[in-house]
Model the fold of this input.
Amino acid sequence: MSTILDTIIAKKQQEVAAAKLVQPIDKLEALAAEAAPPRDFIAALSATPDVRLIAEVKKASPSAGIIREDFDPVAIAKTYAQSGAACISVLTDENFFQGSLEFLRQIRAVVEIPLLRKDFIIDRYQLLEARAAGADCVLLIAECLSSEQLLTLHRQAGELGLQTLIEFYDAENLPAVLATDGRLVGVNNRDLRTFHTDLQHTVRMRSQIPTDRLLVGESGIRTHDDVKMLGAAGVKAILVGESLMRQADIGQAVHSLLGTA
Ligand SMILES: O=P(O)(O)OC[C@@H](O)[C@@H](O)c1c[nH]c2ccccc12
Done:
């Protein structure tokens, strides 16, 4: 069955090929090498025993359409950082999520906490782009990569000083995730074939993920009760976009979610 992921990956291959013509890889290598040293994304998620928040800057998605009309990525990121997010995820895919690598660069200039490049990474070139723009961590999606690609991209990320968040949805992809030594493992609660979201998916996967991995619950998280439920199930961090981005007062929304106000 062909899914939205197949469509996204086909487009991504074209984009990366086109980007390499505009910005040759040796130029990008130099820019990545000059970037300020990376911050410790994993340490920021382990700093306290409570469930830590990776707050996502997300304008739109294929499942929801436009999520927020009044979209100022830098202002949103500052609010996230001031309101208690441990890290920020910046969607950089343009075609399907209306994101931009430029947002990441702008946010890096004004926010201190670690940043994740959230995109569909299939090529080392995108790791260099991420590092050159100031990312500290990148998302790798098991459903988009072979086991070999996952190992290779995780290793290449490490060589560039980038940490990885390795995400899966299908239980059958978990062995490939665990074959890497990536410490951050994400369970996506959204089935990208149907867009159906179920928080119990993270809970069900919990027992199959060794406790030396830091478990990140992703997608569809809306309330403080959700956070408590996931925390009780052993989730150490959550990745939340839509439910925060839909609120008029994003700072208040972060506090409500974390139970800090
Ligand atoms: O907006 P939500 O439902 O809070 O979800 C955030 C994040 O988990 C979601 O954006 C996401 C998780 N994995 C992805 C992979 C690609 C694009 C997007 C995603």
Observations:
- Residues 167 and 186 are 4 Å apart (CA to CA).
- The mean pLDDT is 97.
- The domain at 4-258 is CATH 3.20.20.70 (TIM Barrel).
